[in-house]
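The instructor's notes for this session suggest beginning with a concrete chain rather than abstract definitions. Hand out the sequence below and ask the class to guess, before any prediction is shown, which regions might be ordered.
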Amino acid sequence: MTSGNLDLEDAISWRQGMLATCHGTTQELLEQIEFGGVDDDVEVSLNRQSWQPIDQFPVFAEALDDAQVRRSPRPVGEVDVNLTPMIDVTFLLLLFFMLTATYEKQKSIDTPPPPSNSAARPTLQELQDENIVARVSADGTLQLDDDAVSWNHVGKELEKRRRERKTTSLIIVAEDMADWGLLVRLQDEAILAGIEKVAFGKGVPPGNE
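After discussion, reveal the predicted structure:
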């Protein structure tokens, strides 16, 4: 079996600088190269008289290259970061803060407490004498004190009646199927018109009109 220009059993000599000269076979030098005991500044002789750099011999040059590759630090590859747990924790924290957060309550208008069952219900006429009464039907028709009013002019009408009657109370009487959006709009218009108290009612008791 041969390696390069040398047989593995060929007798050779090698030296490194001023160190002692070693004698052995091609196989022994290859083993020392493999275990890192030989550098590339070693000289080799086949007859112990003429010396040549070790890399001039293909078999030794190849062995030195392989050993250097094995001794070289391996490049560190990119580290894969798994973001799934981080995303899960983020959503859990978001859910926690959404469930535990407190929000500022919307400002509302104080409404008078409902009358007790033992007290007689006021008639519509009594309500109109002390308050502005707005009635909203299921089809969206609006009446202020029994007068039909357009939704486009409800704000002006409320302000006009507040000044004329010198009252800042409004009672909104709505039918069962009245649109809640219209009721909210009416309440907002009342606030803009200077109404301070808004109460809601449901229809008018039969016989009390």
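Then share the key points. The domain at 124-202 is CATH 3.30.420.270 (Nucleotidyltransferase; domain 5). The first strand starts at residue 2 and ends at 3.
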